[in-house]
Amino acid sequence: MNKNDAIFEESKIYMPGGVNSPVRAFKDLDINPPVIKRGSGTYVYDEEGKEYVDFVGAWGPMILGHCDEDVVKAIQDTAKEAIAFGAPTNLELKLARHMCKTLENVDMVRMVNSGTEATMSAIKLARGYTGRDKIIKFAGCYHGHFDGFLVSAGSGVMTEGIPGSLGVPQDSIKNTLIANYNDIGSIKSIFNTCGKEIAAIIIEPVAGNMGVIPSNKEFLKELSVLCKENGTLLVFDEVMSGFRVAYRGAQSLYGVKPDLITFAKIMGGGLPSGAYGGRADIMEKLSPLGAVYQAGTMSGNPLVMAAGYATLTKLYNNQEYYSKMEELGCLLENGVKQVAKEKSINVIINRCGAMSTIFFSDLDKIENYDDAKLSNTKLYASYFKHMLTKGINLPPSQFEALFLNVKMEQCHIERFLEALRSWEPIYK
Ligand SMILES: Cc1ncc(COP(=O)(O)O)c(C=O)c1O
C-alpha cells in the first residue's frame, strides 16, 4: 500500500469517511484521494512526492498560489507576538478598513470564521433588520451548511444527489423559499404571494456550486428592483466570487447594489475566515450597537487578519493579476473546446475570469440547477481520474469550480490540455 492510501485508510478509523468535509473523500469515484503534504505556488505534492498542477486552490482561497511569500511572512511575523487575544487589535482594523475602503457597498464589516458563519449571520441580521422571517434562496446555490440553507443546495449536497440533510428540522426550513436561478418569473410569483414577508434574497451572483453559472445581467438588475419594491434585503454571497472574478467581486461586474455581502475564502488568505458587511444602517443593528446577537471567540483572530490583509493588499496593488488570469482562462477555455471537438465530446464551458466549469453536457447552454443536473457525471468521473493520474488536480465533482491562481503560466494550461488530449473517455 502506498503512503497516501495508508494514511487515508487510517484516517477513516478516526474521522468519518476519513475527512473533515465530505467532497474530499472522493466517495463516488472508487479511488482514494491523494493525501496532500505540501504546496508551493501552482503545485501541490502528495505524501508519495507526486506533483500536481493545482486547479482547486483549497476550493478558492489560494489565488496567490500556495505559500505565497508575503502571506507566509505576515503569518510568521504575527505569530511571534499575537496568536489570539479575544480583544480589539490594530490588525483587524487594518483589514476591516481596507475592505471598506476598496470595496463598493461595504460601509462596515463583521469578521467571522467561515463562509457558513458569514451567510447565516447575514441572514439573521436581515431578519432582525426587517422583522421578517422568510428568505429566498436559489436552487443549486450553496451558502454553507446552516440548516436554513440545506434545501436544494449545490456543492457536496448536489454531488451526493441528496435533497438536503438529515438532522434538519422541518421548522428550520419552513421559512426558506426556493427560486430558479436566472428565472425572474420564479421570484415574481413568490413576491406576488408573500412579498412583504420576505426578509432577504440570498444569491451567489456568479454561482460556483452547481458548477460555474454566472447570473444574467438583466435578471440580477430586476432582482434588485423587486427587492427594493418589497422592502427585502438583497444579500450577495461572494464567499467564492469575492476577490476572484474581479478584485471587487461579482458586484462590480454587474453594477447591482446589494444590501449585504458575505465573504470568506480569499479574504482570509487561506486561514479559516469569513466576514459580512454592507450598509451602515443595517450593520449597526448588530450587537453591541443593536439587538441582533452574533459573536465569536476566534472572530478577528490576529493570524487570520494578517494573512487576509497581506492577500487583499497584494491583490489590490497588482490588479494586472486579473487580466493575466483572464488571458489564461481564455486559453484554457479555447483549448478545451478544441480538444473536445477533436474527440467529439460535447462540452459547455462556463467561465467568469479565474473560475470555470467544464460541463459534460449535450445542452446548448447551462443557466440553472436543472440544466446543470443533466450533465454526464460518469464522464466527468472518467475525465477527473485520468487528469489526476497525469498530475492535474481538479475538483472531484462536476458541480464545483476550477480555479486559476496568479502564479500560473501558459505552460500550466498547456500541461492541462496535453493531459486532456491523452484521455480516453469512459462513458459508463
Ligand atoms: C458561495 C459559498 N457560500 C458559502 C460557503 C461556505 O463557506 P465555508 O465552507 O467556509 O463555511 C461556500 C463554500 O464553498 C461557498 O462557496
From TrEMBL:
InterPro entries: 4pyrrol_synth_GluAld_NH2Trfase, Aminotrans_3, Aminotrans_3_PPA_site, PyrdxlP-dep_Trfase, PyrdxlP-dep_Trfase_major, PyrdxlP-dep_Trfase_small. Pathway: Porphyrin-containing compound metabolism; protoporphyrin-IX biosynthesis; 5-aminolevulinate from L-glutamyl-tRNA(Glu): step 2/2. GO terms for cellular component: cytoplasm. Its EC number is 5.4.3.8. It catalyses: (S)-4-amino-5-oxopentanoate = 5-aminolevulinate. Its main location: cytoplasm. The modification N6-(pyridoxal phosphate)lysine is found at residue 265. It holds the Pfam family Aminotran_3. Keywords: Cytoplasm, Isomerase, Porphyrin biosynthesis, Pyridoxal phosphate. GO terms for biological process: protoporphyrinogen IX biosynthetic process. Its cofactor is pyridoxal 5'-phosphate. The keyword Cytoplasm applies. This is Glutamate-1-semialdehyde 2,1-aminomutase.
